[in-house]
Amino acid sequence: MARGLNKVMIIGNLGRDPEMRYTPNGTPVTSFSVAVGRSWTTPDGERKEATEWFNVVAWRELAEICNQHLRKGGRVYIEGSLQTRSWEDQNHQRHFRTEVVADQMIMLDGKRRDGREGSHGSDRDSANAGNWD
Questions:
Q1: Which residues contact 133 (CB under 8 A, 6 or more apart)?
Q2: Beta bridge partners of 35
Q3: How far apart are CA 71 and CA 74, in angstroms?
Q4: Dist. CA 15–CA 56, nearest whole Å
């Protein structure tokens, strides 16, 4: 099979505070939602707006950083890939969820919770990680 490309870049605002949990083997994972607004003009000249919501997941070091420094309403740039997972509930109903698995995160509202500016990438792409000092 030929190699493909799965790359996502979004800029938006956090819809809720991040939630961090740990996998059974102790790996941190943080999830949050990002609202991305878009606008367009219809053929009649009417201006329309819509908001797309993206579920974002960050792992390991980036998960810890997102949990510590992001907050609801904050503006953020997320770069990563799309991943769809599925599971079966207690009623044997199949569910699917598509998420952005974050590799990079840049806070665009200028300040982290501790008042410092910063951006960060995951350990998978440390060459592109932002400077935290």
A1: none
A2: 13, 53
A3: 6
A4: 11
Tens digits of pLDDT across the chain (133 residues): 889 999 999 999 999 999 999 999 999 999 999 999 999 999 999 999 999 999 999 999 999 999 999 999 999 999 999 999 999 999 999 999 999 999 999 999 865 455 555 545 544 433 333 333 3
Query: CB of 86 within 8 A of CB of 12?
Result: no
- The answer to whether 124 touches 102, Cβ cutoff 8 Å, is no
Distance CA 64, CA 28 (A): 7
Question: What count of residues does the chain have?
Answer: 133
DSSP class of 115: S
- Cα 123–chain centre separation: 16
Whether the Cβ atoms of residue 102 and residue 78 lie closer than 8 Å to each other: yes
Tell me if residue 63 falls in helix, strand or coil: helix
Q: How far apart are CA 116 and CA 104, in angstroms?
A: 18
Domains of the chain, CATH where assigned: 8-38+47-125 (2.40.50.140)
